[in-house]
Write a structure and sequence with these properties.
Belongs to the RecA family. RadA subfamily. This protein has ten helices and 21 strands. By secondary structure, it is an alpha/beta fold. The chain has three domains: 30 residues, no CATH class; 206 residues, P-loop containing nucleotide triphosphate hydrolases (Rossmann fold, 3-Layer(aba) Sandwich), CATH 3.40.50; 175 residues, Ribosomal Protein S5, domain 2 (2-Layer Sandwich), CATH 3.30.230. Strands 6-5-7-8-4-9-10-11-12 form a nine-stranded mixed sheet, with helices on both faces. The protein has a four-stranded mixed sheet with strand order 13-14-16-15. Strand 7, helix 5 and strand 8 form a beta-alpha-beta unit. Helix 7 crosses helix 8 and helix 8 crosses helix 10. About 2% of the residues have low confidence.
């Protein structure tokens, strides 16, 4: 007679970051390399039947219907009152949606969301509830007075306990809930302290369930790590509907919101803001921030058009070439990709016959803008050549094109849209790659197939 196997099933261990399962506990996940993220999971139950256990069917909460019969009017996006934010969200806040806004400390997340809550309270019959776990109610009130965000239907709560937050929701019945921040909230049903992986996941799951059940849009403020990623478990970004990154240099007033994930619209949109002493203001036309104010042209400057998301923006690239007294000349870069700049300098010297080996080269952008796309290669090359020859480019010239290692000038995407933006701002001449398709009629285009032709066109423009 065969003996019955009564040995208990072995426990499983799973990574809280990526969900990878291992047979035993490890200090570091072998899949995502996260430290301290592996925890023990309950052992899987097995039924006496051979193979996996069977789950009995239950009654559905609502019957399934053909997709064409599903009502969508209740899920239409509502404007938040901040047009630049609505651009990134895809039209506004969808009822029941959960939005995660992440950014570095001091970039202006709380100021922006306080303005969103104020605009919602002013334009809607439903109140807005702003819950802060990082500041006292008095501190938020002081900032609201400074930025002009006071309103009778804007409710404020200073809580770090999730059950107290849900109690505020029951009492106020808001049309919009803002939680600042998810890392400061603590659920009594989860282990660990605030900001831990277990707590962040539990708080997000509870707030998401509340948002879906009541149809209330929820905006969560999230912290970021030193490498710029969202702090907490990776599953946090999967739980929410929209993930936005709020970016900005503390030495500049420019702020940008980038869509990383969006279930209700495009995930490549960008919203531009200016952070001022009296609050934050949207910039529907931010190109002026990235162009220097000067009455006369200066050698070493070139204007190009970059695309942030779907928005073309004019950017100015500046270069300074000076004789060097060092054995190894200096190469300083600000706002540009240093590896890309080094490549362009090498191509310029080898293919364009511009001698730079005995000179210090400094390159930068204007207005704190970061330019990384290859469409600015030709503008960078001509700015350096202009600085070396001490010849200024025409003030109405825009330069577009990617430069290859052989010195060829390659096509860039969306050239017509870029030139249309440049023409709108008064630029009437352009250097572009060959075979670029339709271009606006109010811009005179000169096609340059390689870097040598671009440098020759630069000399012709300087003489003209």
């Amino acid at each position: 007679m065969a003996t019955k196997n009564t040995r208990a099933p072995r426990p499983r261990h799973r990574c809280a970051e990526c969900g990878h399962e291992v047979a035993k506990w490890l200090g570091r996940c072998p899949e995502c390399q996260a430290w301290g993220s592996i925890g023990e999971m309950p052992a899987a139950r097995t039924s006496g039947v051979s193979g996996a256990g069977r789950l009995a069917a239950g009654a559905p909460s609502t019957p399934a219907r053909p997709i064409v019969e599903v009502d969508i009017e209740s899920s239409r996006a509502r404007p938040s009152g901040v047009p630049e934010l609505d651009r990134v969200l895809g039209g506004g806040l969808v009822p029941g949606a959960v939005v995660l806004l992440a950014g570095e400390p001091g970039v202006g997340k709380s100021t922006l969301l306080l303005e969103v809550a104020h605009q919602w309270a002013a334009s809607s019959d439903e109140p807005a509830l702003y819950v802060t776990g990082e500041e006292s109610a008095g501190q938020v009130r002081l900032r609201a007075e400074r930025t002009g965000s006071l309103h009778q239907r804007l409710y404020l709560g200073a809580e770090s306990d999730l059950s107290a937050v849900l109690g505020h929701v029951d009492a106020v019945r808001p049309g919009l809930l803002i939680v600042d921040s998810v890392q400061t909230m603590q659920s009594p049903e989860a282990d660990g302290g605030p900001g831990g992986m277990t707590q962040v996941r539990a708080v997000t799951v509870a707030l998401t369930a509340m948002a879906k059940e009541r149809g209330v849009p929820v905006v969560l403020v999230g912290h970021v790590t030193k490498d710029g990623s969202v702090a907490g478990p990776r599953v946090l970004e999967h739980l929410v509907d929209v993930v936005l990154h709020f970016e900005g240099d503390r030495h500049s007033t420019l702020r940008m919101i980038r869509g990383v994930k969006n279930r209700f619209g495009a995930a490549d949109e960008v919203g531009c803001f200016e952070l001022r002493d009296d609050g934050i203001v949207g910039l529907p036309d931010p190109s002026g921030l990235f162009l220097s104010d000067r009455e006369v042209t200066v050698p070493g400057t070139a204007v190009t058009v970059v695309v942030e998301g779907k928005r073309p923006l004019l950017a100015e690239v500046q270069a300074l070439v000076a004789a060097s007294t060092l054995a190894t000349p200096r190469r300083a870069v600000s706002g540009l990709d240093s590896a890309r700049v080094s490549m362009i300098l090498a191509v310029l010297e080898r293919r364009g016959r511009v001698r730079l080996g005995d000179a210090d080269v400094f390159t930068a952008t204007v207005g704190g803008m970061k330019v990384t796309e290859p469409a600015a290669d030709l503008a960078l090359a001509l700015a350096v050549a202009s600085a070396k020859a001490d010849v200024a480019l025409p003030s109405d010239l825009v330069v577009l094109g990617e430069v290859g290692l052989a010195g060829e000038v390659r096509r860039v995407t969306g050239l017509g849209r870029r030139l249309a933006e440049a023409g709108r701002l008064g630029f009437r001449r352009a250097l572009v790659p060959p075979d670029s398709g339709r271009v606006p009629e109010d811009v005179v285009v000169t096609e340059v197939p390689h870097l040598g032709a671009a440098l020759a066109a630069l000399r012709d423009l300087a003489r003209g």
